[in-house]
Design brief:
By secondary structure, the chain is α/β, with parallel strands linked by helices. Helix content is 46%, strand content 11%.
Protein backbone atom coordinates (compact mmCIF):
# COMPACT_ATOMS: atom_id res chain seq x y z
CA UNK A 1 0.00 0.00 0.00
CA UNK A 2 1.36 3.40 -0.96
CA UNK A 3 1.68 5.69 2.06
CA UNK A 4 -0.05 9.03 2.21
CA UNK A 5 1.97 12.18 1.67
CA UNK A 6 3.23 13.73 4.89
CA UNK A 7 0.16 15.02 6.69
CA UNK A 8 0.02 18.77 7.18
CA UNK A 9 0.00 18.24 10.94
CA UNK A 10 2.84 16.31 12.61
CA UNK A 11 2.87 12.87 14.19
CA UNK A 12 3.31 13.08 17.97
CA UNK A 13 5.49 10.34 19.52
CA UNK A 14 5.16 9.99 23.31
CA UNK A 15 7.53 7.74 25.30
CA UNK A 16 9.72 8.25 28.37
CA UNK A 17 12.55 6.21 26.80
CA UNK A 18 14.69 8.46 24.61
CA UNK A 19 16.29 5.50 22.81
CA UNK A 20 12.89 4.20 21.72
CA UNK A 21 11.78 7.67 20.57
CA UNK A 22 14.93 8.00 18.47
CA UNK A 23 14.50 4.51 17.01
CA UNK A 24 10.82 5.04 16.21
CA UNK A 25 11.29 8.47 14.61
CA UNK A 26 14.21 7.15 12.54
CA UNK A 27 12.09 4.25 11.30
CA UNK A 28 9.15 6.51 10.41
CA UNK A 29 11.35 8.99 8.57
CA UNK A 30 13.63 6.68 6.61
CA UNK A 31 11.43 3.62 6.13
CA UNK A 32 8.04 5.27 5.69
CA UNK A 33 8.95 8.79 4.56
CA UNK A 34 7.26 10.66 7.46
CA UNK A 35 9.50 13.55 8.48
CA UNK A 36 6.96 15.79 10.21
CA UNK A 37 7.40 14.46 13.75
CA UNK A 38 7.25 15.79 17.33
CA UNK A 39 8.94 13.77 20.11
CA UNK A 40 7.77 14.01 23.71
CA UNK A 41 9.45 12.29 26.71
CA UNK A 42 7.32 13.78 29.47
CA UNK A 43 3.71 12.58 29.41
CA UNK A 44 2.62 15.67 31.35
CA UNK A 45 3.37 17.84 28.31
CA UNK A 46 1.07 16.02 25.88
CA UNK A 47 -2.11 18.03 26.46
CA UNK A 48 -0.17 21.32 26.31
CA UNK A 49 1.26 20.29 22.93
CA UNK A 50 -2.22 19.48 21.64
CA UNK A 51 -3.52 22.82 22.88
CA UNK A 52 -0.79 24.65 20.93
CA UNK A 53 -1.17 22.81 17.62
CA UNK A 54 -3.14 20.03 15.94
CA UNK A 55 -1.46 16.70 15.29
CA UNK A 56 -2.30 14.05 12.70
CA UNK A 57 -1.80 11.11 15.06
CA UNK A 58 -0.43 10.23 18.50
CA UNK A 59 1.83 7.18 18.99
CA UNK A 60 1.57 6.65 22.72
CA UNK A 61 3.54 4.43 25.10
CA UNK A 62 1.33 2.69 27.64
CA UNK A 63 3.65 2.58 30.67
CA UNK A 64 5.20 5.91 31.70
CA UNK A 65 5.88 7.83 34.93
CA UNK A 66 3.67 10.76 35.97
CA UNK A 67 0.75 10.08 33.58
CA UNK A 68 0.13 6.64 32.11
CA UNK A 69 -0.79 6.06 28.50
CA UNK A 70 -4.33 5.11 29.56
CA UNK A 71 -4.76 8.44 31.40
CA UNK A 72 -3.61 10.40 28.35
CA UNK A 73 -5.80 8.30 26.05
CA UNK A 74 -8.87 9.16 28.13
CA UNK A 75 -8.09 12.89 28.02
CA UNK A 76 -7.38 12.92 24.28
CA UNK A 77 -10.57 11.02 23.44
CA UNK A 78 -12.60 13.50 25.50
CA UNK A 79 -10.99 16.73 24.28
CA UNK A 80 -9.70 15.83 20.80
CA UNK A 81 -11.92 12.98 19.59
CA UNK A 82 -10.87 13.37 15.93
CA UNK A 83 -7.17 12.77 16.70
CA UNK A 84 -6.34 9.04 16.35
CA UNK A 85 -4.25 7.48 19.14
CA UNK A 86 -2.12 4.37 18.56
CA UNK A 87 -0.99 2.57 21.71
CA UNK A 88 2.53 1.11 21.74
CA UNK A 89 3.29 -1.26 24.61
CA UNK A 90 6.16 -3.49 25.61
CA UNK A 91 3.63 -6.09 26.80
CA UNK A 92 1.60 -8.39 24.60
CA UNK A 93 -1.52 -8.50 26.76
CA UNK A 94 -4.85 -9.13 25.06
CA UNK A 95 -6.94 -7.74 27.94
CA UNK A 96 -4.99 -4.46 27.95
CA UNK A 97 -5.34 -4.13 24.17
CA UNK A 98 -9.10 -4.70 24.35
CA UNK A 99 -9.44 -2.15 27.15
CA UNK A 100 -7.53 0.49 25.18
CA UNK A 101 -9.62 -0.09 22.07
CA UNK A 102 -12.80 0.25 24.14
CA UNK A 103 -11.50 3.56 25.50
CA UNK A 104 -11.13 4.87 21.95
CA UNK A 105 -7.63 3.92 20.73
CA UNK A 106 -7.32 3.59 16.96
CA UNK A 107 -5.00 0.57 17.28
CA UNK A 108 -2.66 -1.29 19.63
CA UNK A 109 0.83 -2.59 18.78
CA UNK A 110 3.52 -4.38 20.74
CA UNK A 111 6.85 -2.54 20.51
CA UNK A 112 8.66 -5.66 19.39
CA UNK A 113 6.28 -6.16 16.48
CA UNK A 114 7.91 -6.24 13.06
CA UNK A 115 8.49 -2.87 11.44
CA UNK A 116 6.29 -3.56 8.38
CA UNK A 117 3.18 -4.24 10.47
CA UNK A 118 3.56 -1.03 12.46
CA UNK A 119 4.14 1.11 9.35
CA UNK A 120 1.19 -0.54 7.58
CA UNK A 121 -1.02 0.20 10.59
CA UNK A 122 0.01 3.85 10.66
CA UNK A 123 -0.63 4.22 6.93
CA UNK A 124 -4.04 2.60 7.26
CA UNK A 125 -5.13 4.94 10.05
CA UNK A 126 -3.88 8.03 8.21
CA UNK A 127 -5.71 6.86 5.06
CA UNK A 128 -8.94 6.41 7.02
CA UNK A 129 -8.49 9.84 8.57
CA UNK A 130 -7.98 11.36 5.10
CA UNK A 131 -11.15 9.69 3.83
CA UNK A 132 -13.16 10.96 6.80
CA UNK A 133 -11.88 14.50 6.22
CA UNK A 134 -12.76 14.31 2.52
CA UNK A 135 -16.29 13.08 3.27
CA UNK A 136 -16.77 15.80 5.86
CA UNK A 137 -15.57 18.55 3.50
CA UNK A 138 -17.70 17.21 0.67
CA UNK A 139 -20.79 17.04 2.88
CA UNK A 140 -20.23 20.50 4.37
CA UNK A 141 -19.58 22.03 0.96
CA UNK A 142 -22.81 20.70 -0.54
CA UNK A 143 -24.89 21.56 2.52
CA UNK A 144 -23.54 25.10 2.75
CA UNK A 145 -23.45 25.51 -1.05
CA UNK A 146 -20.26 27.56 -0.98
CA UNK A 147 -16.55 27.32 -1.75
CA UNK A 148 -13.81 27.68 0.85
CA UNK A 149 -11.19 28.67 -1.73
CA UNK A 150 -13.00 30.46 -4.59
CA UNK A 151 -9.80 32.26 -5.55
CA UNK A 152 -8.10 29.07 -6.81
CA UNK A 153 -10.83 28.63 -9.43
CA UNK A 154 -10.61 32.20 -10.76
CA UNK A 155 -8.92 30.99 -13.95
CA UNK A 156 -11.92 28.81 -14.83
CA UNK A 157 -14.60 31.07 -16.30
CA UNK A 158 -18.00 29.55 -15.61
CA UNK A 159 -21.47 30.01 -14.19
CA UNK A 160 -22.39 26.35 -14.66
CA UNK A 161 -23.84 24.43 -11.75
CA UNK A 162 -22.03 21.31 -13.00
CA UNK A 163 -18.71 23.08 -12.76
CA UNK A 164 -19.50 24.49 -9.31
CA UNK A 165 -20.18 20.94 -8.08
CA UNK A 166 -16.77 19.89 -9.43
CA UNK A 167 -15.14 22.77 -7.53
CA UNK A 168 -16.75 21.54 -4.31
CA UNK A 169 -15.53 18.01 -4.97
CA UNK A 170 -12.00 19.28 -5.62
CA UNK A 171 -11.99 21.15 -2.31
CA UNK A 172 -13.00 17.92 -0.57
CA UNK A 173 -10.27 15.74 -2.11
CA UNK A 174 -7.45 18.26 -2.60
CA UNK A 175 -5.78 17.44 0.71
CA UNK A 176 -5.87 13.69 0.07
CA UNK A 177 -2.63 11.89 -0.77
CA UNK A 178 -4.32 9.65 -3.33
CA UNK A 179 -3.95 10.04 -7.09
CA UNK A 180 -6.50 11.97 -9.13
CA UNK A 181 -7.59 11.16 -12.68
CA UNK A 182 -9.03 14.06 -14.70
CA UNK A 183 -10.97 13.07 -17.81
CA UNK A 184 -12.65 15.12 -20.49
CA UNK A 185 -12.54 15.97 -24.15
CA UNK A 186 -9.64 17.87 -25.64
CA UNK A 187 -9.84 21.58 -24.91
CA UNK A 188 -12.02 21.54 -21.77
CA UNK A 189 -9.22 22.79 -19.48
CA UNK A 190 -8.11 19.69 -17.58
CA UNK A 191 -4.79 21.23 -16.54
CA UNK A 192 -6.62 24.18 -14.96
CA UNK A 193 -8.41 21.72 -12.69
CA UNK A 194 -5.14 19.98 -11.82
CA UNK A 195 -3.56 23.30 -10.87
CA UNK A 196 -6.57 24.14 -8.70
CA UNK A 197 -6.03 20.91 -6.74
CA UNK A 198 -2.37 21.82 -6.26
CA UNK A 199 -3.02 25.39 -5.15
CA UNK A 200 -5.55 24.45 -2.48
CA UNK A 201 -3.26 22.26 -0.40
CA UNK A 202 0.30 22.79 -1.63
CA UNK A 203 0.57 26.38 -2.78
CA UNK A 204 4.24 26.65 -1.83
CA UNK A 205 5.21 23.14 -2.93
CA UNK A 206 6.53 21.91 -6.26
CA UNK A 207 4.45 21.61 -9.41
CA UNK A 208 5.94 19.57 -12.26
CA UNK A 209 4.09 18.73 -15.48
CA UNK A 210 4.99 16.09 -18.07
CA UNK A 211 3.09 15.40 -21.30
CA UNK A 212 3.67 11.70 -21.96
CA UNK A 213 2.16 11.63 -25.45
CA UNK A 214 4.66 10.38 -28.00
CA UNK A 215 7.32 9.38 -25.45
CA UNK A 216 8.85 5.96 -26.00
CA UNK A 217 9.66 3.84 -22.95
CA UNK A 218 13.30 4.92 -22.74
CA UNK A 219 12.57 8.62 -22.93
CA UNK A 220 9.68 8.28 -20.47
CA UNK A 221 11.84 6.41 -17.92
CA UNK A 222 14.62 8.99 -18.20
CA UNK A 223 12.17 11.90 -17.92
CA UNK A 224 10.33 10.41 -14.94
CA UNK A 225 13.12 8.75 -12.96
CA UNK A 226 16.24 10.59 -14.16
CA UNK A 227 19.63 8.93 -14.60
CA UNK A 228 23.04 8.71 -12.98
CA UNK A 229 26.33 9.57 -14.64
CA UNK A 230 27.39 6.92 -17.14
CA UNK A 231 23.95 5.30 -17.33
CA UNK A 232 24.12 5.39 -21.13
CA UNK A 233 26.22 6.86 -23.90
CA UNK A 234 26.19 10.61 -23.55
CA UNK A 235 25.15 10.62 -19.88
CA UNK A 236 28.10 12.75 -18.78
CA UNK A 237 26.46 13.79 -15.52
CA UNK A 238 23.55 12.77 -13.33
CA UNK A 239 20.18 14.32 -14.04
CA UNK A 240 17.18 14.35 -11.68
CA UNK A 241 13.87 13.10 -13.04
CA UNK A 242 10.45 14.67 -12.77
CA UNK A 243 9.67 12.66 -9.64
CA UNK A 244 12.66 14.09 -7.79
CA UNK A 245 11.83 17.61 -8.97
CA UNK A 246 8.25 17.25 -7.76
CA UNK A 247 9.25 15.96 -4.29
CA UNK A 248 6.70 17.05 -1.70
CA UNK A 249 4.38 18.42 -4.36
CA UNK A 250 2.45 17.39 -7.44
CA UNK A 251 3.50 15.57 -10.62
CA UNK A 252 0.96 16.19 -13.40
CA UNK A 253 1.02 13.53 -16.12
CA UNK A 254 -0.92 14.78 -19.14
CA UNK A 255 -2.21 12.53 -21.94
CA UNK A 256 -1.83 9.46 -19.72
CA UNK A 257 -3.95 7.44 -22.15
CA UNK A 258 -1.08 7.62 -24.68
CA UNK A 259 1.40 5.92 -22.35
CA UNK A 260 2.90 2.70 -23.73
CA UNK A 261 2.23 -0.60 -21.92
CA UNK A 262 5.91 -0.94 -20.97
CA UNK A 263 5.88 2.53 -19.39
CA UNK A 264 2.57 1.77 -17.67
CA UNK A 265 4.27 -1.09 -15.79
CA UNK A 266 7.01 1.23 -14.51
CA UNK A 267 4.56 3.91 -13.42
CA UNK A 268 2.43 1.28 -11.67
CA UNK A 269 5.44 -0.01 -9.73
CA UNK A 270 6.21 3.50 -8.49
CA UNK A 271 2.60 4.09 -7.44
CA UNK A 272 2.53 0.79 -5.56
CA UNK A 273 5.88 0.99 -3.80
CA UNK A 274 6.63 4.70 -3.61
CA UNK A 275 10.15 3.83 -4.81
CA UNK A 276 11.96 4.18 -8.13
CA UNK A 277 15.34 3.51 -9.69
CA UNK A 278 17.10 6.22 -11.73
CA UNK A 279 18.51 4.79 -14.94
CA UNK A 280 21.89 3.19 -14.24
CA UNK A 281 21.40 3.03 -10.46
CA UNK A 282 21.01 -0.02 -8.22
CA UNK A 283 19.87 1.97 -5.20
CA UNK A 284 16.13 2.62 -4.94
CA UNK A 285 14.97 6.08 -3.95
CA UNK A 286 11.77 7.05 -2.17
CA UNK A 287 9.60 9.95 -3.23
CA UNK A 288 6.68 11.76 -1.62
CA UNK A 289 4.73 12.89 -4.69
CA UNK A 290 1.04 13.42 -5.46
CA UNK A 291 0.15 12.12 -8.93
CA UNK A 292 -2.53 13.86 -11.00
CA UNK A 293 -3.14 12.35 -14.44
CA UNK A 294 -5.30 13.61 -17.29
CA UNK A 295 -6.59 12.12 -20.52
CA UNK A 296 -9.11 12.71 -23.28
CA UNK A 297 -9.23 8.97 -24.04
CA UNK A 298 -11.91 6.53 -22.90
CA UNK A 299 -9.79 4.46 -20.51
CA UNK A 300 -12.64 1.98 -19.95
CA UNK A 301 -12.65 1.14 -23.67
CA UNK A 302 -8.85 1.01 -23.69
CA UNK A 303 -8.89 -1.51 -20.83
CA UNK A 304 -11.35 -3.69 -22.75
CA UNK A 305 -8.99 -3.65 -25.76
CA UNK A 306 -5.96 -4.40 -23.57
CA UNK A 307 -4.36 -1.02 -24.31
CA UNK A 308 -4.44 0.22 -20.70
CA UNK A 309 -3.70 -1.78 -17.56
CA UNK A 310 -6.63 -2.18 -15.18
CA UNK A 311 -4.40 -2.16 -12.09
CA UNK A 312 -2.83 1.14 -13.16
CA UNK A 313 -6.26 2.60 -13.90
CA UNK A 314 -7.51 1.82 -10.40
CA UNK A 315 -4.32 3.27 -8.88
CA UNK A 316 -4.77 6.50 -10.81
CA UNK A 317 -8.48 7.08 -10.24
CA UNK A 318 -8.74 6.99 -6.46
CA UNK A 319 -10.48 10.31 -7.13
CA UNK A 320 -11.95 11.09 -10.54
CA UNK A 321 -12.91 14.43 -12.04
CA UNK A 322 -14.78 14.48 -15.35
CA UNK A 323 -14.85 17.94 -16.92
CA UNK A 324 -18.02 18.38 -19.03
CA UNK A 325 -17.70 19.57 -22.64
CA UNK A 326 -18.70 23.12 -23.53
CA UNK A 327 -21.85 21.93 -25.36
CA UNK A 328 -23.16 20.65 -21.99
CA UNK A 329 -22.68 24.03 -20.31
CA UNK A 330 -23.70 26.52 -22.95
CA UNK A 331 -24.64 29.01 -20.27
CA UNK A 332 -20.88 29.68 -20.04
CA UNK A 333 -20.58 30.89 -23.64
CA UNK A 334 -21.52 34.57 -22.95
CA UNK A 335 -19.03 34.71 -20.07
CA UNK A 336 -16.26 33.08 -22.08
CA UNK A 337 -16.98 35.33 -25.05
CA UNK A 338 -16.54 38.45 -22.93
CA UNK A 339 -13.46 37.04 -21.16
CA UNK A 340 -11.62 36.04 -24.35
CA UNK A 341 -12.55 39.26 -26.15
CA UNK A 342 -10.86 41.24 -23.39
CA UNK A 343 -7.88 38.86 -23.24
CA UNK A 344 -7.38 38.88 -27.02
CA UNK A 345 -7.70 42.65 -27.31
CA UNK A 346 -5.17 43.21 -24.52
CA UNK A 347 -2.67 40.77 -26.04
CA UNK A 348 -2.91 42.54 -29.42
CA UNK A 349 -2.85 46.08 -28.05
CA UNK A 350 -6.38 46.83 -29.25
CA UNK A 351 -9.53 48.18 -27.66
CA UNK A 352 -11.97 45.48 -26.67
CA UNK A 353 -14.51 45.21 -29.52
CA UNK A 354 -18.26 45.16 -28.90
CA UNK A 355 -19.83 41.88 -30.05
CA UNK A 356 -23.23 41.75 -31.80
CA UNK A 357 -26.03 40.91 -29.37
CA UNK A 358 -26.87 37.73 -31.27
CA UNK A 359 -23.30 36.35 -31.30
CA UNK A 360 -23.52 34.36 -28.07
CA UNK A 361 -26.86 32.87 -29.20
CA UNK A 362 -25.32 32.01 -32.56
CA UNK A 363 -22.34 30.31 -30.88
CA UNK A 364 -24.64 28.30 -28.62
CA UNK A 365 -25.98 26.46 -31.69
CA UNK A 366 -22.51 25.03 -32.38
CA UNK A 367 -21.26 21.76 -30.83
CA UNK A 368 -17.68 22.96 -30.24
CA UNK A 369 -15.75 19.70 -30.77
CA UNK A 370 -12.63 21.59 -29.62
CA UNK A 371 -14.44 22.98 -26.56
CA UNK A 372 -13.13 26.09 -24.78
CA UNK A 373 -9.82 25.96 -26.64
CA UNK A 374 -11.67 26.14 -29.96
CA UNK A 375 -13.88 29.02 -28.79
CA UNK A 376 -10.77 30.92 -27.67
CA UNK A 377 -9.11 30.40 -31.06
CA UNK A 378 -12.26 31.59 -32.87
CA UNK A 379 -12.40 34.76 -30.79
CA UNK A 380 -8.69 35.51 -31.17
CA UNK A 381 -9.04 35.12 -34.93
CA UNK A 382 -12.03 37.48 -35.02
CA UNK A 383 -10.24 40.11 -32.91
CA UNK A 384 -7.08 39.89 -35.02
CA UNK A 385 -8.96 40.94 -38.18
CA UNK A 386 -11.24 43.44 -36.42
CA UNK A 387 -10.73 47.09 -37.33
CA UNK A 388 -13.60 49.22 -36.05
CA UNK A 389 -17.28 49.20 -35.15
CA UNK A 390 -19.00 46.08 -33.89
CA UNK A 391 -17.18 42.78 -34.05
CA UNK A 392 -17.97 41.01 -37.33
CA UNK A 393 -19.67 37.63 -37.24
CA UNK A 394 -18.24 36.59 -40.62
CA UNK A 395 -15.32 34.55 -39.26
CA UNK A 396 -17.61 32.75 -36.79
CA UNK A 397 -20.11 31.92 -39.53
CA UNK A 398 -17.35 30.48 -41.69
CA UNK A 399 -16.38 28.03 -38.95
CA UNK A 400 -19.96 26.94 -38.36
CA UNK A 401 -20.58 26.65 -42.09
CA UNK A 402 -17.72 24.15 -42.34
CA UNK A 403 -19.26 21.93 -39.64
CA UNK A 404 -20.28 18.67 -41.34
CA UNK A 405 -23.92 17.76 -41.09
CA UNK A 406 -24.74 14.13 -40.26
CA UNK A 407 -25.68 11.92 -43.19
CA UNK A 408 -28.88 9.88 -43.11
CA UNK A 409 -27.04 6.60 -42.40
CA UNK A 410 -25.13 8.29 -39.53
CA UNK A 411 -28.41 9.47 -38.00
CA UNK A 412 -29.89 5.98 -38.32
CA UNK A 413 -26.82 4.51 -36.63
CA UNK A 414 -27.12 7.05 -33.82
CA UNK A 415 -30.77 6.14 -33.27
CA UNK A 416 -29.91 2.43 -33.16
CA UNK A 417 -27.08 3.01 -30.67
CA UNK A 418 -29.38 5.01 -28.41
CA UNK A 419 -32.16 2.40 -28.61
CA UNK A 420 -34.79 4.41 -30.37
CA UNK A 421 -33.71 7.97 -29.66
CA UNK A 422 -35.50 9.12 -32.84
CA UNK A 423 -38.28 11.56 -31.91
CA UNK A 424 -40.67 9.42 -33.97
CA UNK A 425 -39.65 6.04 -32.58
CA UNK A 426 -42.32 5.75 -29.90
CA UNK A 427 -45.17 7.21 -31.98
CA UNK A 428 -47.86 4.83 -33.18
CA UNK A 429 -48.59 7.13 -36.14
CA UNK A 430 -46.06 9.31 -37.94
CA UNK A 431 -46.73 13.07 -38.30
CA UNK A 432 -47.31 14.44 -41.76
CA UNK A 433 -44.39 16.14 -43.51
CA UNK A 434 -46.15 19.47 -43.04
CA UNK A 435 -46.53 18.93 -39.27
CA UNK A 436 -42.98 17.58 -38.89
CA UNK A 437 -41.55 20.66 -40.64
CA UNK A 438 -43.54 22.91 -38.29
CA UNK A 439 -42.05 21.13 -35.28
CA UNK A 440 -38.56 21.43 -36.76
CA UNK A 441 -38.97 25.16 -37.34
CA UNK A 442 -40.25 25.64 -33.78
CA UNK A 443 -37.22 23.81 -32.38
CA UNK A 444 -34.82 25.87 -34.49
CA UNK A 445 -36.44 29.08 -33.25
CA UNK A 446 -36.23 27.84 -29.66
CA UNK A 447 -32.51 27.08 -29.97
CA UNK A 448 -31.84 30.43 -31.64
CA UNK A 449 -33.99 32.25 -29.06
CA UNK A 450 -36.21 33.64 -31.80
CA UNK A 451 -33.43 34.86 -34.08
CA UNK A 452 -34.66 33.95 -37.57
CA UNK A 453 -31.26 34.34 -39.26
CA UNK A 454 -29.67 31.85 -36.89
CA UNK A 455 -32.68 29.52 -37.06
CA UNK A 456 -32.53 29.52 -40.86
CA UNK A 457 -28.84 28.56 -40.68
CA UNK A 458 -29.67 25.63 -38.40
CA UNK A 459 -32.32 24.42 -40.84
CA UNK A 460 -30.07 24.81 -43.87
CA UNK A 461 -32.39 27.27 -45.64
CA UNK A 462 -32.24 30.97 -46.40
CA UNK A 463 -33.60 33.68 -44.10
CA UNK A 464 -36.18 34.54 -46.76
CA UNK A 465 -37.35 30.93 -47.07
CA UNK A 466 -37.86 30.69 -43.31
CA UNK A 467 -39.74 34.01 -43.25
CA UNK A 468 -41.99 32.80 -46.05
CA UNK A 469 -42.67 29.54 -44.21
CA UNK A 470 -43.55 31.39 -41.00
CA UNK A 471 -46.01 33.61 -42.86
CA UNK A 472 -47.89 30.70 -44.39
CA UNK A 473 -51.30 30.18 -42.76
CA UNK A 474 -51.51 27.06 -40.61
Amino acid sequence: MKEPLNPTSPLLLVDDEESWLNSLSFMLEFSAGYNNIIRCQDSREVMDILARQPVAMILLDLTMPHLSGEDILTSVVQEYPETPVVILSGMNQLATAVQCMRQGAADYFVKTVERERLIAGIRRILAIQELQQENRKLRDGFLQDRLEHPEVFSGIVTQSRKMFSLFQYIEAVACSSESILITGESGVGKELFARAVHRIDRRQENWVALNVAGLDDGVFSDALFGHVKGAFTGAEKSRPGMIEKAAGGVLFLDEIGDLSLASQVKLLRFLQEGEYLPLGSDTPRRANVRIIAATNHDLDAMQARGDFRKDLYFRLCAHRIHVPPLRERKEDIPLLLDYFLEEAAESMGKRKPTPPEELSVFLSTYRFPGNVRELRAMIYNAVSIHRSGKLSMVSFKEVLRREPRPEIHEMESLYEDRQGASPFFSLSALPTLSHASELLVEEALRRSRGNQTIAAGLLGISRQALSKRLKKPK
